[in-house]
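Slide 14.
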Amino acid sequence: MKKTLLALLIASVAQASLAAPAPASVQTAIAPVREVDRIVAVVNKNVITWQELQGRVNEAIKQLESQKVTPPARDVLERQLLEQMITEEVQLQYAASGGLRIEDAAIDQAVANLAKQNKLSEAGLKAQLAKDGISMDRLRGDIRRELTISRLRDSEVASRVNVSDSEVEQVLKSAQSANRTEYHLASILVSVPERADAKQIDALSQKVHKALADLDAGQPFAKVSASYSDAPNAIKGGDMGWRPATSLPLEFVQMLEQLKPGAHTDVIRTQQGFFVFQLQDKRNGSAPMLVEQYHTRHILIRTNEAVSEADAKARIDQIRDRIMRGAKFADMAKLYSEDGSNAKGGDMGWVTLGDLVPDFEKAMVALPIGQLSQPVRTSFGWHLIEVEGKRNQDVSSDHEKMAVKQQIRSRKMEQAYADWVRQLRDSAFVEEHLDDK
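Slide 15: predicted structure.
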């Protein structure tokens, strides 16, 4: 099974261990003692159990070992992953309170895509899951959680992040724009709560400096990240992937230029918390000049406090039915679409991959030219999409500007999402009982 599948799977729940047998003289009188489940955290009105945590720990160990990273001590992983589970639970509760639901059709499509990525039929995927002791219901639950958090991120953050032309021009005019270097980075983050007092900040500073001391003593960065980092990528060794110089602050790029691959920075204090970065590698970036573009038009019915999910879906279904019976797409867009493109009959012009939210792009790319889509759900509402043409466009003259804009937006989204999640976590009622016996 490929890593794309393994990354989504959570190992089967750990079996309760039996106590040592009693002496022979009393063995028949004492029943075996089994470890029972218990609550390890209370998050608002929900709980996280010991068995749920152990399932996540087992999967994290598998993932680290598949990356040839020695896992940290189990109790260290338990504490790290419990905090991640608390943060996830806070987001899932927020999504539920706002009426955000992932429809079964989206889960079905994700399962089909997962099977296709691993060159399996859906029956073959189910059989492989069974071999690993994982039910299809468990997989669908994991996918629903991931899609919920992804859609929440889009609705709460992505739609509010804008990049102005002046921001792009400022980067293009700076000396930094001439730097075509890309950096492969890994990170350790020790988060600092928004309302942390001096005592808390001091304790967290000591924690990150302990991580730094482990690195200086020769411990692998991936293991130290899994042991200390509060970031979601901790169990992936803190891997951040490749980042172009233009997407990073100039002072940080200057710092990276002083490092050799494999070296790490000192502790860096930011609004989010304490960071340590490692330079994994660097290369001279050479992005292609040809990009895939789609001439697209759409109709949007938004969901909000006044328009329920069911009402919006019913309206988009009615519009689709009228188009299928002969109504013109452009006329329906002008009459009903709740997007700024309605005046142009829903015409969005030529759009480039990466410019739109993922759910929309996935549906757009899969559509044959001239075919009307089924209703598509995104963070904005329900869409009907039609692709009028596809092309590979030479954007040499515009490439740098487009790339810089996307890089700035990505950086701003990361920061905005991290800040939003931290505020949500800080406002939640949380009680930890990991050390309770």
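Speaker note: Residues 125 and 396 are 42 Å apart (CA to CA).
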